[in-house]
Structures are given as structure tokens and as C-alpha cells.
Write the C-alpha cells for this entry.
Amino acid sequence: MDPILKTENLSVIFNEGKSNEYVALKDVSIEIFPKEYIIFFGPSGTGKSTLLYSLLGLLQPAAGKVMLKGRDYKSFSEKEINLRTAKSFGIVFQQYNLLFSLNVLDNVILPQIFIGQNQRERKEKAMGLLRRFGIEARAKQPPAMLSGGQQQRVAVCRALINDPDIILADEPVGNLDSESARIVMETLKSINVKDAKTVILVTHDARYLPYADRVYFFKDAGIDHEEKMKPSTNLDLAANENGPEGKNAGLERLARVHPSLSLPELKACALSNWLVEEVTPEQRKRIEASMVKLLAGKISEHQFFEELNLSYAKGGAGLYSSTAATLVRRVVHISREARIYAENLKNATDESRKHRLAKLLRLYVLEDHKGNLIEEKMQRLETVIDERIEGAVRHEGFIKQLSTKFSAGGVGFTPVVAQRLAERMEIIMSLKN
Ligand code: ADP
Ligand code: MG
């Protein structure tokens, strides 16, 4: 695969030739591939933002070059530069940078003006995004009435409105409390995973590193080294699986159906049931066998992909490469999710555990259902989630409450949605407690 963005021996010098000359980047060569989630990490003043704005084409290199999809920035005309900025990139800053004289909706629509979309389409698209991120109700308000976290989500909507391939985010959660920060980070991650956008995020906060596929570590005006994040190998299969509150009901149920399976096999089985639909039982067996190896850290993500993609006749699962790639991504994603969730809970009290899981699920629900939930419904949802976490209701009861009509005191989801949400919750809770 060709890189979507690339620099070759890039150097950037501020105030070149003057007494206050400053070399902000020296000889930096990087390659970023489509759909990657990249973090630029390092202490303040090491050139992270400088590299980000160089990729955007805002800074002139003193030496070396920057390329978008193989094309050197030097070869773009003025007009092409403007289009490149508007169409290929969405940007999120630390200071939200919303216009306080415009309402939320108009802030989101603003970048569309540069690419001349018609007004009705613009509005619909913007409302769709606001809905997705749970801030639709704020559309007509001025940004100043929103919390910091909500303002940053508006900025994320604005960054997405032109449907760019690449999202650049410069310390996007630097000003937010940890809970709002998490929501914004989850939002950016879902843009990477669900919308398949390349995300490049600058941060000096190591807590966020697990969100990335790959991290460039910055030091002294350049990159010291890079690290590929390997979420799957961090899955701790030896962790205590018999925690309180019946947290592993999903796995317990499976164990009843498949009494001979070991714990890693059960996990793979739960994951494959959840992630894979149209395969033969024999293919499913092979997928699960490969997944067990991946979850145990015995094979790499790449080898996992190869085994899935290898033809059935040769002993593989025989999946199309696109299907295999999607499956690898989703397994890696869900493992990472479970791990981030677990890390977040390490020192948490029961109360904040509950709160956090409820938040996480709330975010999924809002995204999956385009934010169509009225507040009362949301409250009911959170109550049943709490009850489920406490073990006051079992899995089946949980599904029942989710799918009972709103007028009859339930949450009012369709059975399919209720089932999906309940399973998602079991998976997240059961992968690691
Ligand atoms: P980081 O994002 O890693 O904190 P920056 O890329 O913003 O670092 O800055 C790297 C260095 O370049 C800093 O020492 C900063 O002071 C300097 N710098 C950044 N922008 C300018 C500018 N416009 N003029 C002069 N120096 C700058
Ligand atoms: Mg910076």
C-alpha cells in the first residue's frame, strides 16, 4: 500500500537567516498509510505541531519534501492548495476555534462554503453529524453555551463535514477534564475505525497512546523512534475471570453451550459470533482457531490476516482479503477497547466504574442510533445498564428491558438493537475485567 502522507528529510526553520533562527524540525522522514491512527508524542517544543502543520502544507520546508498520495507539495498550484486543504484535511485544535458569533450548526457548515455544496445538503449533513455525536439539540445555540467537551465535538463535526480522508488533531483534549477528554478520544477513534479516516493526533499525554496504531516519539526537533502499538498482545488472558457481579455472563452462557472449550477458545468464539456473519461452520472453526492464537499473542496481526485470507484448500479460512482485513481491524479494535476500559478502571471505585461503562455504552448507542434518543430514554438506558453491571438483572433480562416498549416502562429499542447492545456490553466486560 502506498502512503497517503509522506515526508522525506524534511527540515523546517523559523526565522531563517535571522538572529533568532530556530530549527524546529531536522531531517524528518515519515510515512503514514491510509486508515492509520498515528500519534505524534513527546515533550513540548519538540516539533510535533510543526510537523502536523507541515503535513497540512501551512509551513514551507527549508529542506526536504512533503507528499500527499505521492504528489510533492511543490507541484500544487495555488488553487490546488486551497482545494487540498479543504477536501483532504479536517483539523481539530486544542482551542476548539469555533466562531462565537455563529451558532453551532453554522460553525459545522462553514468549511462547506469553500467547496460549494448546496445549502440544504449542507444543513442535512451537518445535522447528521451533530446527531451522531449527541449534540443535535445544541444546533441553534451559540458555542459559548456548550461545555468544553461539547464544543470540541462540534469542532470534530466541522472537521468531518467535507468528508476528508485525513483528520489532524493538535492536542484536541488538552483543555478538557478527563471524562470529556475520553469522550472526544472515543469519538476520534470511531472516526478512524468506522469511517476509515486516517487520524494524526498530537499529544504529550501518554495515557492516550493505546488509541494509536503507531506512535512517533519526538525528541529534539525530530523523531527519536516509532512504535507500533500491539493491543492484541496486551490482552491478559490470565486475568481473573470469576469476578463479582456475574460480569462474565456472556462467556458463562457460551461455556454452557460449548463445555469443552478452554477460556481463550470461548473468547474467540464470543468474538467470532459477534463479528462474523456469513461463513460456513467449518470456516468459523478456522477463524476461531486463528483468533485463539492471536489473542494468546502467538501470532501477529499480520499472520492472523494471512491465515484468514489463505484459501480454504490450503488450510486457511478462505476469507476475501477485504473481509479478512475488516475482521482483523475489528478484533484489534475490540481488544483495544477492552484494554482501555480495563486500564481506566484499574484504580476506579465501583461507582466510577459503573459511571464509565455507562458513558462508553452511551456513546455507542448515540453513534449507532444517530443520536435519536430522547433524554428520558437515555436515563432509562443508563438505569438498566447500572443494574446489569451490578448483576441485578441477567443478560436475558437486560435484553428484555432494552426491548420493552417505552410506554410500558422499557427503553424501547427494537429486539435487534437490544440484542446487539447487550452483546456489545457482555463482550467488553468479559474480555477483561
Ligand atoms: P510542540 O508541538 O512539539 O510542542 P512546536 O512544533 O510547536 O512544538 O514548536 C517547536 C519549536 O519551534 C518550539 O521551540 C517553538 O518555540 C518553535 N516555534 C514554533 N512555531 C514558531 C514560529 N512561528 N516562530 C518561531 N519559532 C517557532
Ligand atoms: Mg504543539
Notes: The two ends are 37 Å apart (CA to CA). Residues 5-240 form a domain with the Rossmann fold fold (CATH 3.40.50.300).
